[in-house]
Amino acid sequence: MKTIRSNVHYHNGNEPETDMYSEILHGLRQEKKFISPKYFYDKKGSELFESITMLTEYYPTRTELLILNKFKDEMAHAIGSDTALVEFGSGSSEKVRTLLEAMPELKEYVPIDISKDFLYQSARALSMEYPHLDVHAVSADYTDKFEVPELKSKRKAVFFPGSTIGNFEPEESMKFLKMTANFLRPKGGLLIGVDLKKDHAVLNAAYNDNKGITSQFNINLLNRLNRELLANFDLEKFQHHAFYHAEKGRIEMHLVSLINQTITIGNEKVFFTEGETIHTENSYKFTIQEFQNMARQCGFTPEKVWCDDKNWFSMHYLVV
Ligand code: AVJ
Fold first, then answer.
1. Atom 10, ligand 1: residue with shortest CA distance
2. Is 224 helix (H, G, I), strand (E, B) or coil?
């Protein structure tokens, strides 16, 4: 029998730290109730997000792909050869394919994601399309400490598209950037997608689409809690609310309770007054200067930034 050497390898980067029930209950016990946006992405939530990316009003995904496509050769050149490409939150590894087209000599790709099954399936598919690429799939929460396997390439570049950094609080962004700089040292770069400040009407429309998909995406979170944590939210009694908060430079998403109500979650009760909200997401927007200044404070040197013609979205290449 002939032995076939597979070019996909699986690694455990770290173990999930938090327990969903206690984390969510903790948020709902606060004066201002909140739930982390990471909980949006169950199967249905991931599908709804996919639909959001195709909406006319939701410009970020489409614009980022446009920038990637237009400047992929310059990006590949900035990253350089003999560099391993490490993607944080790789999901289906769809966006990286554009970059891979411009990097035919790339030897190693390291997708990191928290949803293990989906990661392994996507990594295997990709490894079959790129037989000369070593794919090291690492299941980990990349916002925590994690291990990656020993790599052959001289340096690493982290690919972090999607403006996911917008979901982090300013201090979390700083911590994340510092951790990433440490991960890349002694030498390496970060290619990151960052959504930009712009006309408030454009921002507001992107999170209040006509078809109500973003509303469904927000409300699906309650559906998930009902199913996975044995809660009894009445989905009709909460309403999607999203707006741009100019002073804070962020889109806020909330679920507004339409009446006074008590909900049960596991064995616990949570009371809502009419009009009270669960804050479910912040999506920070930056100017190019703001983002570069923050990155500098965390040990990066901005090397290059690419934008679309309207300056709605940016992709930065920063080095350590
Ligand atoms: C995936 C965090 C980039 O903030 O635009 C889309 C999530 N929320 N519509 C964003 C989201 C509502 C999205 N990110």
1. 283
2. helix
Confirm or reject: Cβ of 218 under 6 Å from ligand 1: no
Nearest to 88 by CA among 137, 33, 158: 158
Average pLDDT of the segment spanning 109-117: 92
CA of residue 283 to ligand 1 center, whole Å: 7
Cα separation, 304 vs 72, whole angstroms? 13
- Give the model's pLDDT for residue 15: 81
Query: 295 C-alpha to center of ligand 1: Å?
Result: 21
Model confidence over 17-73: pLDDT tens digits?
778 999 999 999 999 999 999 999 998 998 999 999 999 999 999 999 999 999 999
- List the residue whose alpha carbon is closest to atom 5 of ligand 1: 283
Burial track 297-306 (b if 16+ CB lie within 10 A, e otherwise):
ebbbebebeb
Which ipTM value was assigned to this complex?
0.99
Looking at ligand 1, which atom is closest to the CA of residue 60? 5
Residue 164: Cβ within 10 Å count: 20
Q: Could you tell me where the beta strands, DSSP code E, fall in the chain?
A: 8-12, 83-88, 108-113, 134-139, 155-160, 188-195, 238-245, 250-257, 261-265, 268-272, 277-284, 301-307, 313-319
- Give distance in angstroms: CA of 165 to centre of ligand 1: 10
Residue, of 3 and 248, whose pLDDT is higher: 248
Overall residue count recorded for the chain in this entry: 320
Q: Do residues 195 and 163 lie in contact, with contact meaning Cβ atoms separated by under 8 Å?
A: yes
